[in-house]
From TrEMBL, chain A:
It is found in: Cell membrane. It is a multi-pass membrane protein. The keyword Protein biosynthesis does not apply. GO terms for biological process: transmembrane transport. The keyword Secreted does not apply. The chain crosses the membrane at residues 63-85, 97-120, 140-164, 196-224, 244-269. Residues 59-265 form the ABC transmembrane type-1 domain. This is ABC transporter permease. GO terms for cellular component: plasma membrane. CDD domains: TM_PBP2 (cd06261). Belongs to the binding-protein-dependent transport system permease family. CysTW subfamily. Its main location: membrane.
TrEMBL record, chain B:
The keyword Transport applies. Keywords: ATP-binding, Nucleotide-binding, Transport. InterPro entries: AAA+_ATPase, ABC_SmlMolc_Importer, ABC_transporter-like_ATP-bd, ABC_transporter-like_CS, Mo/tungstate-bd_C_term_dom, P-loop_NTPase, Transp-assoc_OB_typ2. PROSITE patterns: ABC_TRANSPORTER_1, ABC_TRANSPORTER_2. Belongs to the ABC transporter superfamily. This is Fe3+/spermidine/putrescine ABC transporter ATP-binding protein. PANTHER family: SPERMIDINE/PUTRESCINE IMPORT ATP-BINDING PROTEIN POTA, SPERMIDINE_PUTRESCINE IMPORT ATP-BINDING PROTEIN POTA. It comes from Teichococcus deserti.
Length: 276, 352
C-alpha cells in the first residue's frame, strides 16, 4: 500500500517542497541591482518587509480583505448550504452542479466579467445612465468593494460545498426534536444546527481564508493600481523589481501569517465545539 | 394535559393521498396506537400532530384548543423519535434540560426537574455523559426523559422500540407503559409491530393506505374484525373468498361449503369473505374425512397444519399434541376432519 503513495509523494516533493526550499534560500540572499542576487545569509529582507510602513499597509489590507471576505462568505454561504443540504428533491444534484458552475470559469475571465459590469462604461453604469438616474458614472470599480465582490464570488462555492457536506450529516430529527421541545426556528439554529455545523464552519473558513489571503487576479484587475494586496506585491518584486530575495521574504511572511491565523482560528473554533 | 382530537385530518401530496380523513379521539390519559404497514399514513398522522407536516385538511385539537395552524414549537407535545434524536453535542443532563430552558424555567427548578426525570428512567447517575457514550436502550430512556420532563399535553412516540434488540424491546415496552399510566399521559404511539401495539395501547387504530380501517381494543380487533385488512393484519387469519348460501353455509369460490353463524349471515347478507382464525379450527384424524394434510410444521409449543379441503387450503394452529395423542403422528397426505364453532367464522365484506 505504501508504494501507492509514492508517485503522489514524489510529485509533492518535486513540485512543492523543492521550490519552497529554494525560495527559502533565496529569501536569505542579498539583492543587488547589478547582479540581481548575491549569496548571503541575512535577515535583512524580512526586517525590511516587517518595518516598511508600505508593506505593513499592504499586509493590513490583505488581512482586512481576507477576514472580511471570509465572514461575508460564511454569512452568505450558510443559508445556501443549509438549503442545499436539506434539499430532498431530484433537483439536488442539479443545484450542486449550479453551485460548482462558477468554478468552471477561471478567475481572470471572471474578473474581466466584473470589470465589464462595474466599470465606468460598464453595464450597471450604462443602465443607470440610460434610465436617467445618474449623469456621471458611479465609482463601482477599483475599490475595496469591487475586490471583495470579486473574491466572494470566487470563494463562495468552496464555502457552500464544505458547509453543506457537514450540515447534511446533522440529523434532521435533532432539529425537529428541538422545535418539539419549544425552540423557535432561530433558537434551533443557534443551539443545535450551528454547534453541530462548527467543524464545517471551521473547515470552510480556513479554506476560504487561505484562498482570500492569496488573492491575485481579483486584487489586480478589480482593485486597480492603487489597491495593493500581498500576492500582487510578491509578483511585483519578482517580475518588475527583479528583487527575488525581497519577493521571497514577502512570500514567506504571507505564508507564515496565513498559517498562524489558520491554526489559531481553527483551534479556537475546535475548542468551542468541544465545550458547546 | 388534555385529550387529543383529530377531525377529518387529510394529507395530500399532489395527486397522491398519504392520510385520508382520519377521525380520532385520544382521551385524557389514554394510550392509542396507530398500527399499520409502512406507508399506511401512521407516521404522517403523528407528524401532523407534532406540527412537522401541515395538514391539507381537517383539524387537530389538543385539550380542546385548535392547534392545526400552530408551529411545532408552540404545540406542547412531547415526542420520542425512532432514532432518539438526542442532541449529540449536549450531555444527557443538558438534553433533558433543553425543553425546560425553552420554557424559561429557572436554573434551580430546572436542575431538580432534570434529575427527577432522569431518576424516573433510572439514569440519574449518567447525567454528565454524552449521548454517544450510552447504549441504545439508555439513549432511548434519555429521549423519554427529555420528552416527559416538560409535562407535555400530548405524548408522541414514533416507533420508539424499533432500534432496540428483542430482549430490550420487551423491557422498554413495559417501562414506557408503566410511566404512561403512572403519569396519566395522553399518548399516541406509532408502530408497525402488532405485538407492541397489542401489549401497550388501550386502543388500536389500524390504518392502511391512508385510511383508518378499524378502531378498537386489542380484543375487539382480534375477535371482531370488521374489515378484511384488519382480520389479516392483526393476528393470522384464513380469509376465504366466496358467498353465502343460506342458512349458515358459506360457499367458497373453490366450491367447499363452510359453515358459519346463521345470525351473523343474516346481519351481513353481502358477505364476500369468511375469516377463520387458525387456532379456532379443530382437527381430527379421520380416514373418512374430507381434508388432506398438505404440510405439518412443528414449532415447539405449537404445530401448524396446512389442510386442503375441496380446493380450499386452511391454516390450522394447535398446541403441539402430546406423544400419546394420535394427532402427533399426523403426516402429510393423511385424511382429517375439520371443525369449528359457527360463531368463530367471521363474515366480512369484500376487500376494498
Amino acid at each position: 500500500m505504501a508504494a501507492l503513495v509514492l508517485p503522489a509523494g514524489l510529485l509533492v516533493l518535486l513540485l512543492l517542497v523543492a521550490p519552497m526550499l529554494l525560495l527559502a534560500r533565496i529569501s536569505l540572499n542579498q539583492f543587488s541591482p547589478t547582479e540581481m542576487m548575491v549569496e548571503a545569509t541575512t535577515a535583512a529582507n524580512y526586517l525590511r518587509a516587517i518595518q516598511d510602513p508600505y508593506y505593513q499597509q499592504v499586509m493590513a489590507t490583505t488581512l482586512g480583505v481576507a477576514l472580511g471576505c471570509t465572514l461575508l462568505t460564511l454569512a452568505l454561504g450558510f443559508p445556501a448550504a443549509y438549503w442545499l443540504a436539506r434539499m430532498q428533491s431530484r433537483w439536488k444534484s442539479l443545484a450542486t452542479i449550479l453551485v460548482l458552475f462558477p468554478l468552471l470559469v477561471g478567475n481572470v475571465v471572471r474578473a474581466a466579467g466584473w470589470m465589464a459590469l462595474l466599470g465606468n462604461e460598464g453595464a450597471i453604469n450604462a443602465a443607470l445612465k440610460g434610465l436617467g438616474l445618474i449623469t456621471t458614472s458611479l465609482p463601482l470599480l477599483y475599490n475595496t468593494g469591487s475586490v471583495v465582490t470579486g473574491i466572494v464570488a470566487v470563494v463562495l462555492p468552496y464555502m457552500i460545498l464544505t458547509l453543506a457536506s457537514v450540515i447534511e450529516s446533522i440529523p434532521r430529527q435533532a432539529e425537529e426534536a428541538a422545535s418539539n421541545l419549544g425552540a423557535k426556528p432561530f433558537t434551533v439554529f443557534r443551539r443545535v444546527v450551528l454547534p453541530l455545523a462548527l467543524p464545517g464552519v471551521a473547515a470552510g473558513s480556513v479554506l476560504v481564508f487561505i484562498l482570500c489571503m492569496n488573492t491575485y487576479a481579483s486584487a489586480v484587475l478589480l482593485g486597480g493600481p492603487q489597491f495593493k494586496m500581498m500576492a500582487p506585491a510578491v509578483y511585483d518584486q519578482f517580475v518588475r523589481g527583479n528583487n527575488w530575495p525581497f519577493g521571497a521574504a514577502l512570500a514567506f511572511i504571507l505564508l507564515g501569517v496565513t498559517l498562524l491565523l489558520t491554526v489559531v482560528g481553527s483551534t479556537l473554533l475546535g475548542r468551542k465545539y468541544k465545550t458547546a | 394535559m388534555g385529550n387529543l382530537v383529530l377531525e377529518a385530518l387529510c394529507k395530500r401530496y399532489g395527486s397522491s393521498t398519504a392520510v385520508e380523513r382520519v377521525d380520532l379521539e385520544v382521551k385524557q390519559g389514554e394510550m392509542v396506537a396507530l398500527l399499520g404497514p409502512s406507508g399506511c399514513g401512521k407516521t404522517t398522522t403523528l407528524r401532523m400532530v407534532a406540527g412537522f407536516i401541515p395538514p391539507s385538511e381537517g383539524r387537530i385539537l389538543i385539550g380542546g384548543q385548535d392547534v392545526t395552524r400552530r408551529p411545532a414549537h408552540a404545540r406542547d407535545t412531547g415526542m420520542v423519535f425512532q432514532s432518539y434524536a438526542l442532541f449529540p453535542h449536549m450531555t444527557v443532563g443538558q438534553n433533558v434540560a433543553f425543553g425546560l430552558e425553552m420554557r424559561k424555567v429557572g436554573r434551580a427548578e430546572r436542575d431538580g426537574r432534570v434529575m427527577e426525570a432522569l431518576r424516573l428512567v433510572r439514569l440519574d447517575h449518567l447525567a454528565d455523559r454524552l449521548p454517544r457514550q450510552l447504549s441504545g436502550g439508555q439513549q432511548q430512556r434519555v429521549a423519554l426523559a427529555r420528552a416527559l420532563v416538560v409535562n407535555p399535553a400530548v405524548f408522541l412516540l414514533d416507533e420508539p422500540l424499533s432500534n432496540l434488540d428483542a430482549k430490550l424491546r420487551g423491557e422498554v415496552r413495559m417501562e414506557i407503559r408503566a410511566l404512561q399510566q403512572r403519569l396519566g399521559l395522553t399518548t399516541l404511539i406509532v408502530t408497525h409491530d402488532q405485538e407492541e401495539a397489542l401489549t401497550m395501547a388501550d386502543r388500536l387504530v389500524v390504518m392502511e393506505r391512508g385510511r383508518v380501517r378499524q378502531v378498537g381494543t386489542a380484543e375487539e380487533l382480534y375477535e371482531n374484525p370488521t374489515d378484511p385488512f384488519v382480520a389479516g393484519f392483526v393476528g393470522r387469519c384464513n380469509l376465504i373468498e366466496g358467498r353465502l348460501e343460506a342458512p349458515g353455509g358459506f360457499r367458497a369460490a373453490s366450491g367447499a361449503l363452510l359453515h358459519c353463524d346463521v345470525e351473523a349471515a343474516e346481519a351481513r347478507p353481502d358477505a364476500a369473505l369468511l375469516a377463520l382464525r387458525p387456532e379456532r379450527i379443530g382437527l381430527q384424524p379421520d380416514a373418512e374425512g374430507g381434508g388432506r394434510v398438505a404440510a405439518v410444521t412443528y414449532l415447539g409449543a405449537q404445530t401448524e397444519y396446512l389442510v386442503e379441503q375441496d380446493g380450499t387450503s386452511l391454516l390450522i394452529i394447535r398446541p403441539t399434541p402430546t406423544l400419546a395423542d394420535p394427532l402427533r403422528r399426523l403426516a402429510v397426505g393423511d385424511a382429517v376432519t375439520l371443525s369449528w364453532e359457527a360463531a368463530a367464522a367471521r363474515l366480512l365484506p369484500a376487500a376494498t
